[in-house]
Amino acid sequence: MLLITSKLKIDYPGGRELLSVLNYKSLKKIYGKNLITYELEKIDQPSLYKAINGFKGYIDGSSKKIVAEVLDIIKNNNIENVFIDGSNLGVFAHSIKEKFPSIKITIFFHNVEVRFFYGALRAKNSLHALGVMVTNYFAEMKSVKFSDYRVVLNKRDSEQLKKIYGREATHISSIAMKDKFSDSYPNTSSKFSLKDSYALFVGGNFYANRDGITWFLENVAPKIDIKIVVIGRDLDVLKKKFFGVTNIEIIGEVDSVNDWYLGSKFVVAPIFDGSGMKTKISEAMMFGRKIIGSEEAFFGYEQFADVAGWICKSSDDYIDAINQANSTIIEPFHPELREIFKEHLSQDSYTLRLKKILK
Asked: Which of 43, 142, 116 is closest to 273 using CA atoms?
């Protein structure tokens, strides 16, 4: 098996990067020494040169030279299967199928990329955002066309692939992540005082997170009786806007999210756009925390939603759910959510699913 992936960043906090590392670890566990990994590094190029290459399909670290290197690796190592981590890397699927038509190609879709970047275009209407969306559309089209197996995170993504490109996914496998919570933790309620606890939002500064939490802080936070803590890479850009608001604390990037989860009473996830699945929902369940979030946030988690928390459609829904959570949550750690994580959303459960997919 040859794995083609972006540069693996073991300690990187982003959801996509964490999922790429998870794919690598699962494949390593399945294939052992029979796994060869090719990591792509982003290439620093002048804007015009980058744009020309992008429309040829060479994006996110790929190039004509690198594709040729990958083809040599396949030839010299008798590769039978290729796993491409990300539908943005369709140029590899196209080139491999043309030269080695018998090789089985599996594409892992983190999102439906064109849908994801369409949302980014709507949020920031610019020529650059349009160019990114178009280049990803052509790259993803090649991934769909030249793959044997297409693995997506939920049914919605499969339906979108069918609608946009004419082919649905062959397999659906929900998101998973490394377990950062140890069962050896003492009773978490003894470590953190419930009266000092807060509602927690976690997410990096991309448009869906930023727009969602900004809406929440403007429309919900003033009407609830609990502190809202916001953590995430580059979200400290919101500090100025909400400076001095009594029940809002913007932290920004942190070294570890563990203690922030353990100090929280519950988690909020007001996300209104996107694709794939939201890693922070899985992370909240890892730490046994209830979630109050949007329909978008719970996509892919529908079977757990009734147990996991509350789905909200309006500011009034959020206010009602938060008031209910405030009055009913006595112990913030919910062991049943932790069990759901271990059974369905952990590294071990994901490895078993991937092994079945790859036969």
From this structure: 116
φ, ψ for residue 174 (rounded to 5)?
-65, 160
Write the CA distances from 213 to 126, 236, 292, 294, integer angstroms.
23, 12, 12, 11
CA atoms of 230 and 204, how far apart (whole Å): 10
Model pLDDT for residues 227-270, shown as the tens digit of each residue = 999 998 889 899 999 988 989 999 998 888 888 999 999 999 99
Decide: 213 and 201 in contact? Cβ < 8 Å: yes
Q: What homologous superfamily is domain 188-344 in, according to CATH?
A: Glycogen Phosphorylase B; (3.40.50.2000)
Strands (E), 138-191: 149-152, 171-172
Q: Given CA atoms 118, 124, 125, 126 in this order, what sign does their dihedral have? A: negative
What distance lies between CA 297 and its chain's CA centroid?
Answer: 11
Q: At what angle do helices 113-123 and 155-165 cross, to 10 degrees?
A: 90
Location of structure tokens 């078993």: 352
Q: Per-residue pLDDT tens for 19-67? A: 899 999 999 999 999 999 999 988 777 777 778 888 888 888 899 999 9
- Are the C-beta atoms of 62 and 86 separated by less than 8 Å? no
Domain parsing of the chain, residue ranges:
2-172, 188-344
232 and 252 Cβ atoms separated by less than 8 Å: yes
| Residue-level pLDDT at 118 | 82
Q: Options 3.40.50.20, 3.50.50.60, 3.40.50.2000, 1.10.10.10; which CATH number does 2-172 get? A: 3.40.50.2000
